[in-house]
Write a structure and sequence with these properties.
Domain TIR: 582-725
Membrane topology: Single-pass type I membrane protein
Number of helices: 15
Distance between the termini: 148 Å
Main location: membrane
Pfam family, one: LRR_4
Radius of gyration: 50 Å
Number of strands: 37
Shape: elongated
Family: Belongs to the Toll-like receptor family.
CATH architecture of the domain at 586-724: 3-Layer(aba) Sandwich
Length: 750
């Protein structure tokens, strides 16, 4: 029940929906007060008649929907003359069977020139001839109304004299009444005047189309939906069609059309063929071929479509499209859509070079891998570019948008991007919307976005962003109004404290800031980023500082022990062997490159000379199976009175020699009896010697022996060396006697 004045006071209400209410009583003033109502939906309210519907005072009403009710009569009540703004009347799925001349008396007296009338799903049996004569309607829809082609033919003849903008005939997909369709049904259309015609979902449609469209030659637009058509060849020669739609029809091959008047051709969802066939439509401006699974062996030029006037081309959701032309003759194109088709050779050359008037380009999900940086050359007026679902070389977005200075919308989602070149967007000053979502970006590097002075919306959701450095956030364009960072891998740790605080401060800028979740650490996983507390970082600073200091001290101690391990090992050896007798007179440190001189000169003259000296040589005296460093310290330094350092160019360049020399310095410092004897084999370049600062200083401060390969030089060298080695050598009479005897033997043999 709706009583009088139920809606009183709702002067600004524009839409009222009463669907599904079991209304039993409507007061005469039920809708009073609705002075601005434009749309009234009264579906399934048990309405039996329009006469009893109290809406005659709703002068602003534009749309009335009384479908799915119990209305039997098509008679328009007198109050319809008070509804001058009514544009749409839906009487579908009622009980109307017959339509008489008297039913439309109101329309004859005061025609509603812009009225669209829907009578679908009413069981029509009869329309009195002349009922619609001289009546003007915007649209009339008759779908699933007739139980036979004979009844349908009679009813269409009853429409004679009707002047209408658009006529829709047919059935619904799930409401099929006619078992077959007779071409004679459409003959009655010759007595109507209409501009647009659609016919849909008729089973057993005539496969021979000869004469089928004779009464439709003067329409400007025709739409054939879900009909069993094999071909469309026998069209009248005088057809004036400007717009043709062929949707979900069972064509076995692409139709060969010859319609000079045609400007718009829509051919979609026709999956009975696989190959595109060229056609000749010289005045065609709009072409929609999406969702046909077509293959194009060569695309695209004016020869494919027989026109140079094309402005709109949609080839989306097809099969393989091989690009072998740069749209020669199609320079007027403004809209181009390839999405979800498989583009081939699109990256081999500047395929869009000729399209200087193009405003919209969609190559999303076309299996395009961008390698050629000149792929978009020529698109100087492009405003929208969609290339989601493709990929780039090395997953890096390069500078490929140089000429797109008028671009407003750019979609780069799902392109597997890991990095963005710093110059990627430098030539896009007018860009307003940028979609970078569903990629693999690890951080919010804002520097590439700095040149985008007009950017309003930036979507970086569904990436792997953990944080952004504080200084980088300053590069975000000031024009930015919405930034989406949801569904990323934010690390809610103190290290990123400045970024997390920035998120809190920029809630108005961030889309769904409450939905930004932490993924690290584990104790904050799936917690909102906004729940992170800076106080936690402050409380832990002291603990962290103490811990870091402790670790630092332990680390320094460890480094010192590691660095001076051999020196400490030498110190321990000095304590152990400090009071014992030395096994060797000298430990010889030399480069393996100088081993010939050591063997032939040093060893021969010292060990076989008078008095003899026992030298420690690594190739002879080191114990097998013991580490080299341990042998150097234990066998070399600990058991020797002196150290002989044979300095040469090879010595300075040897890491082992320098190591042994450094240990020798420590040994000299720790052992009071120790002494280092330097022998310079060859004159060294000062620049090379200065590489070892300590050695350079020692040679400058201390006396050293210099080898000279001459009789006098050798005599002085060996005398000075033996004297240095005798210093501190314990006296051995038996050794001296043996030496004297060897000297006498040597003299006798001479």
């Amino acid at each position: 029940m709706i009583e009088d004045d139920a809606y009183q006071g709702l002067n600004h209400l524009s839409t009222l929906i009463l669907t599904g209410n079991p209304i039993q009583s409507l007061a005469l003033g039920a809708f009073s007060g609705l002075s601005s109502l434009q749309k009234l939906v009264a579906v399934e309210i048990n309405l039996a008649s329009l006469e009893d519907f109290p809406i005659g005072h709703l002068k602003t009403l534009k749309e009335l929907n009384v479908a799915h009710n119990l209305i039997h009569s098509f008679k328009f009540p007198e109050y319809f003359s008070n509804l001058p703004n009514l544009e749409h009347l839906d009487l579908s799925n009622n009980k109307i069977q017959n339509v008489y001349h008297e039913d439309l008396k109101v329309l004859h007296q005061m025609p509603l020139l812009n009225l669209s009338l829907d009578l679908s799903l009413n069981p029509l049996d009869f329309i009195e001839p002349g009922t619609f004569k001289e009546i003007k309607l915007n649209e009339l829809t008759l779908r699933s109304n007739f139980n036979s082609t004979h009844v349908m033919k009679i009813c269409i003849q009853g429409l004679a004299g009707l002047k209408i903008n658009r006529l829709v005939l047919g059935e619904f997909k799930n409401e099929r009444n006619l078992q077959s369709f007779d071409r004679s049904v459409l003959e009655g259309l010759c007595n109507l005047t209409f501009e647009k015609f659609r016919i849909a979902y008729f089973s057993e449609f005539p496969r021979d189309d000869t004469g089928l469209f004779n009464c439709l030659v003067n329409v400007s637009m025709i739409s054939l939906l879900s009909l069993d058509l094999d071909s469309l060849e026998a069209l009248p020669k005088d057809c004036r069609w400007q717009h043709l739609e062929l949707i979900n029809c069972n064509f076995k091959q692409f139709p060969t059309l010859k319609l000079n008047s045609l400007k718009e051709f829509v051919f979609i969802d026709n999956k009975g063929m696989s190959t595109f066939t060229e056609f000749e439509l010289p005045n065609l401006q709009f072409l929609d071929l999406k969702r046909n699974r077509l293959s194009f062996k060569g695309c695209c030029s004016h020869t494919n479509f027989g026109t140079t006037k094309l402005k709109h081309l949609d080839l989306s959701f097809n099969d393989v499209i091989t690009m072998n032309s740069n749209f020669l003759g199609l320079e007027q194109l403004e809209y181009l859509d390839f999405q979800h088709s498989n583009l081939k050779q699109a990256n081999d050359f500047s395929v869009f070079l000729s399209l200087r008037n193009l405003r919209y380009l969609d190559i999303s999900y076309t299996n395009t891998r961008v390698v050629f940086h000149g792929i978009f050359v020529g698109l100087v007026r492009l405003q929208t570019l969609k290339m989601a679902g493709n990929s780039f070389q090395n997953n890096l977005l390069p500078d490929i948008f140089t000429e797109l200075t008028n671009l407003i919308i750019l979609d780069l989602s799902k392109c597997q991007l890991e990095q963005v070149s710093q110059m990627a967007f430098h030539s896009l000053p007018r860009l307003q919307v940028l979609n970078m979502s569903h990629n693999k970006l690890l951080s919010l590097d804002t520097l590439p976005y700095k040149p985008l002075h007009s950017l309003r919306i930036l979507d970086c959701s569904f990436n792997r962003i953990m944080e952004s450095k504080e200084q980088e956030l300053q590069h975000l364009p000031r024009s930015l109004a919405l930034l989406n960072l949801t569904q990323n891998d934010f690390a809610c740790v103190c290290e990123h404290q400045s970024f997390l605080q920035w998120v809190k401060d920029q809630r108005q800028l961030l889309v769904g800031a409450e939905q930004m979740m932490c993924t690290q650490p584990l104790d904050m996983q799936d917690m909102p980023v906004l729940s992170f507390r800076n106080a936690t970082c402050q409380m832990n600073k002291m603990i962290i500082s103490v811990s870091v200091l402790t670790i630092l001290l332990v680390s320094v101690a460890g480094v010192l022990v590691y660095k001076f391990y051999f020196h400490l090992m030498l110190l321990a050896g000095c304590k152990k062997y400090g009071r014992g007798e030395s096994t060797y007179d000298a430990f010889v440190i030399y480069s393996s490159q100088d081993e010939d001189w050591v063997r032939n000169e040093l060893v021969k003259n010292l060990e076989e000379g008078v008095p003899p000296f026992q030298l420690c040589l690594h190739y002879r005296d080191f114990i097998p199976g013991v580490a080299i460093a341990a042998n150097i310290i234990q066998e070399g330094f600990h058991k020797s009175r002196k150290v002989i350092v044979v300095v040469s160019q090879h010595f300075i360049q040897s890491r082992w020699c320098i190591f042994e020399y450094e240990i020798a310095q420590t040994w000299q410092f720790l052992s009071s009896r120790a002494g280092i004897i330097f022998i310079v084999l060859h004159k060294l370049e000062k620049s090379l010697l200065r590489q070892q600062v300590e050695l350079y200083r020692l040679l400058n401060r201390n006396t050293y022996l210099e080898w000279e390969d001459s009789v006098l030089g050798r005599h002085i060298f060996w005398r000075r060396l033996r004297k240095a080695l005798l210093d501190g050598k314990p006296w051995r009479p038996e050794g001296t006697a043996d030496a004297d005897s060897r000297q006498q033997e040597a003299t006798a043999s001479t």
